[in-house]
Design a protein that fits this description.
The complex is a heterodimer of chains A (299) and B (232). Chain A contains ten helices and six strands. Chain A has helices at 2-20, 22-59, 72-84, 96-106, 108-114, 138-146, 160-199, 202-210, 215-252, 266-294, and strands at 62-66, 88-94, 127-132, 151-155, 255-256, 258-262. In chain A, the strands form two sheets. A four-stranded antiparallel sheet of chain A has the order 2-3-1-4. A two-stranded antiparallel sheet of chain A has the order 5-6. The mean pLDDT of chain A is 80. By secondary structure, chain B is α/β, with parallel strands linked by helices. Chain B has a domain at 92-157. In chain B, the strands form two sheets. Chain B has a six-stranded mixed sheet, with helices on both faces. A four-stranded antiparallel sheet of chain B has the order 2-1-4-5, with helices on one face. The chains are: A alpha+beta (299), B alpha/beta (232).
């Protein structure tokens, strides 16, 4: 009962603290707000970059051409062999006949050429369309496929794909670094602002110590105050994220410049981002104030 | 064992100043003791050792059976709850009114609000500020502010009331009023009072035990003593 009374008083004190030092609280809150908006922005951006990378990677296929003299049975066996290799997502057979039909449909010029052949004289090759799990070792997988007996060639657009993968890798890493750096900067700023808040309440802490308040009793209100500041500071960034991204998504029609770059749907990203924002605000606020008050307990 | 006991206490500050040198003394329950001495005599250090603002370099300080010298920072509050401390500069919180300033000392115990109210009002009445409950420190005179700080010091019924030059900022008449309040606390509640002071008139008038500190040592310790001009 006593512990609850003390806790209740602590929480009340922390609310009082926010309003008693209103200008400083506003400083902390706006500080948190601005940085959290940036953090939220980077999180959503990195989500989108991730999504775009994943989309591109999904489309990357290894085309495996088989030797001309491969029989249907042998072709099936090659398909099995490819399927057993590591890093294989899916294997689809595309016969030379279906390729011929596709091409004829696509292009009248090709139609003229290809219609001279029938199914038995078709000059095209049977092929497998192979998707891989990890795009980064696609070269290795293609090499393994090309040494299989009966495989004529395994191609995946070497060079272009690798370059693309590298660029996205760099972009992703930069985004991560930016997010982490922003969180650290926020932590530092909050901790400093709360230090100033506490500095201005040094006397209060000193008197609390002198009248026999335990260290925990002194620390807790600042701790809650930090949580409160962090929470209040994350409200505007959360709202910005919630309404802002939704608005942007609708405005742009779900894509950026071209249909190739699809945006992540708002409800896939905003809730988790909001959660991250409020968590960062609260944790950093609590931690900053807790650390800052410790220094003043040596009286 | 006496309520307060110092055994061969030495105190050297980190800057090399030797503030106290082999001080031993005892104070029993219910006593009223003046500690006098010139500035830099070690009188303030002696007082600070009692509520563990400072720790002795060597020796032991017992207050109510607790060895203050060995008390860890985290546990200091247990000692302070047995003490009431009054300062020259009052140390009131400017944004709290009289009632809140006094109740502040009880808040930390986690008592019921009704209990806090009862004891706070009693303490404020004891120092004669009943009609200023809602005033803020900057609306009070120096003497009134010191009364508030005394009320705050006694609201938890301490065994010992430590006063560090409580009349240092007050004129002689107001000082005497404050002394009456402190004396009545000593007599009515049986609280042990230890008071560091510069004020000759007060010491001579009250005729209590006087401990004279000089150059970090106890120069004189006399019952019903007077403030003599022995290098003080």
């Amino acid at each position: 009962m006593k512990a609850f009374r003390i806790l209740g008083r602590n929480i009340k004190d922390s609310f009082k603290g926010v309003f008693r030092n209103f200008s400083l609280s506003i400083a902390s809150i706006s500080c948190i707000t601005i940085t959290l908006i940036l953090v939220g922005f980077s999180i959503i951006l990195s989500y989108n970059v991730n999504r775009f990378t994943a989309d591109i990677e999904k489309d990357i296929t290894i085309v495996v051409f088989l030797d001309n003299d491969v029989t249907n049975v042998e072709a099936d066996m090659i398909g099995d062999q490819i399927g057993k290799l590591p890093n294989i997502e899916s294997v689809n057979f595309k016969s030379k006949e279906s390729v011929r039909q596709d091409w004829i449909k696509e292009d009248p010029t090709l139609e003229g050429v290809l219609s001279q052949y029938d199914a038995s004289t078709n000059p095209l090759q049977d092929s497998y369309l192979v998707k891989v799990k990890d795009i980064e070792i696609i070269g290795d997988t293609a090499d393994r496929i090309s040494v299989i007996d009966g495989v004529y060639l395994a191609k995946y657009g070497e060079g272009t794909v690798e370059e693309l993968v590298n660029i996205f890798d760099v972009v992703k890493k930069v985004m991560y670094i930016v997010v982490v750096a922003l969180v650290l900067v926020t932590a530092f700023l909050i901790s400093n602002t709360i230090k100033i808040t506490i500095q201005s309440r040094k006397r209060e802490i000193e008197i609390m110590r002198l009248v026999g308040a335990s260290n925990m009793y002194i620390k807790l209100p600042f701790f809650f105050e930090g949580i409160l500041l962090g929470f209040i500071g994350s409200v505007i960034p959360m709202a910005t994220c919630f309404f802002g991204y939704d608005f942007l998504y609708e405005k742009l029609g779900g894509q950026l410049f071209t249909p190739i770059i699809k945006l992540v749907k708002p409800n896939e990203v905003i809730y988790i981002t909001m959660l991250v924002l409020v968590a960062v605000g609260v944790v950093v606020g609590a931690f900053g104030s807790y650390r800052a008050v410790k220094k003043h307990l040596k009286i | 064992m006496q309520l307060i006991e110092l055994k061969n206490v030495h105190k050297r500050y980190s800057n090399g100043v030797m503030a106290l040198c082999d001080v031993s003394l005892g104070i029993s329950k219910g006593e009223f003791v003046f500690v006098i001495g010139a500035s830099g005599s070690g009188k303030s250090t002696l007082i600070k050792l009692l509520y563990r603002q400072e720790k002795p370099t060597k020796g032991d300080v017992y207050v109510g059976g607790v060895n203050v010298a060995r008390l860890r920072n985290r546990k200091v509050y247990k000692l302070r709850r047995k003490l009431g401390i009054v300062f020259q500069d009052y140390k009131l919180l400017p944004k709290m009114n009289v009632y809140e300033n006094v109740a502040f000392a009880l808040d930390v115990y986690g008592l019921k609000s009704s209990e806090i109210r009862k004891r706070t009002l009693k303490a404020i009445e004891q120092v004669g500020l009943k009609d200023k409950l809602r005033s803020y420190p900057d609306q009070l005179s120096g003497g009134e502010q010191q009364r508030v700080s005394i009320a705050r010091a006694i609201v938890n019924n301490p065994k010992v009331l430590i006063c560090d030059e409580p009349t240092g900022n007050l004129d002689p008449d107001t000082s005497m009023e404050i002394m009456k309040v402190i004396e009545s606390i000593n007599e009515d509640m049986g609280t042990t009072v230890i008071m560091a002071t510069h004020d000759k008139d007060i010491v001579n008038k009250l005729k209590k035990r006087v401990i004279v500190v000089d150059k970090g040592m106890i120069a004189r310790d006399s019952m019903k003593g007077k403030y003599k001009n022995e290098g003080v």
